[in-house]
Design a protein that fits this description.
This protein is of the alpha/beta class and about 260 residues long. Strand 7, helix 6 and strand 8 form a beta-alpha-beta unit. The relative contact order is 0.17. It has a 6-stranded mixed sheet with strand order 6-7-8-3-9-10, with helices on both faces. It has a 4-stranded antiparallel sheet with strand order 2-1-4-5, covered by helices on one side. Helix 3 packs across helix 4 and helix 5 packs parallel to helix 6. The structure holds adenosine-5'-triphosphate. Adenosine-5'-triphosphate binds next to strand 2 and helix 1.
Length: about 260
């Protein structure tokens, strides 16, 4: 495997609070890599520096061999880095299909032209429908987005993210707020994407993390204390005492 994204010595502080404390990490092409850690560990801040929403104080971010450390969010999106969840992009008054078609249109660089002609509309809709098939929401294509259930909203957000044909998908707590049934639908959807898509996943749902991730990194107080396969992370004594142990014994960490 080769690294699609390489992070070197990444640092970020808010005032006196060091929130990203010298992170070094490679995300391999095609892997699902989960970042776990207690509330306030700095997971969202870390991912925001990968999407370009926040600039690091120090360190480097290399994407496919190119230094993107100072590139803004739009520039990174053009290179194929897409962030989803915690920032919803669903237009509630539009149909499910229209929501995805608009994302396809945005990718093709004409975001202000709303369905200009019939041929263009057919083409956009066909590509959008493919994305909906991939997430299992094609049967709701004509439904208004506001009529979808919470779980279906998540599926739609996935379809919107896929419409931009991302090379790296940054997913920030996709399972948050889902009941077990919804979580199971999302889990099977993500299993289908596994291997086709490089994914960096922040997640508190340990069942999802340990069944999906190829590798897991554990962030505590802004620093990575371990990176490894799920079985290695589960067995790591330092991880158990800093995070998983407390989680398994019902301690107030994580969700
Ligand atoms: N813009 C900001 N200004 C000041 N402090 C911030 C800012 N954003 C985050 N923080 C602080 O940085 C720390 C890390 O926050 P962050 O949201 O990255 O953690 P997290 O691991 O994603 O937490 P959670 O699991 O609860 O979502 C927290 O103490 C938070 O209060």
């Amino acid at each position: 495997m080769s690294a699609l994204l390489s992070i070197h010595g990444l640092r970020k502080s808010f005032g006196a609070l060091q929130v990203t404390d010298g992170i070094d990490l490679d995300i391999e092409m095609g892997e699902v890599h989960a970042i776990i850690g207690p509330n306030g560990a700095g997971k969202t801040t870390f991912v925001s520096q990968l999407s370009g929403q926040l600039m690091p104080d120090a360190g480097k971010v290399i994407f496919d061999g190119r230094d993107i450390t100072r590139l803004d969010m739009a520039g990174r999106a053009r290179l194929g880095i897409s962030r989803s969840f915690q920032i919803t992009r669903v237009l509630e008054g539009f149909s499910v299909l229209e929501n995805v078609a608009l994302a396809v249109q945005a990718r093709s660089g004409s975001s202000l032209r709303f369905f200009a002609d019939a041929a263009c509309e057919r083409e956009l809709n066909a590509v959008a429908l493919e994305c909906l098939v991939r997430v299992g929401l094609d049967h709701r294509a004509q439904e208004r987005a506001s009529h979808l259930s919470h779980g279906e909203h998540r599926q739609l957000e996935f379809a919107i993210a896929l419409a931009s044909q991302p090379r790296l998908l940054l997913l920030d707590e996709p399972f948050a707020g889902s009941g077990r049934e919804e979580a199971d639908i999302l889990l099977s959807l993500m299993r289908r994407l596994k291997g086709q898509q490089t994914i960096l996943l922040i997640e508190h749902d340990m069942q999802a993390v340990f069944s999906l991730a190829d590798r897991v990194s554990v962030l505590v107080y802004g620093a990575l204390i371990a990176t490894g396969r799920p079985d290695e992370i589960r067995a790591d004594p330092q991880v158990r005492s800093a995070y998983l142990g407390a989680e398994e014994t019902g301690g107030a960490v994580g969700c």
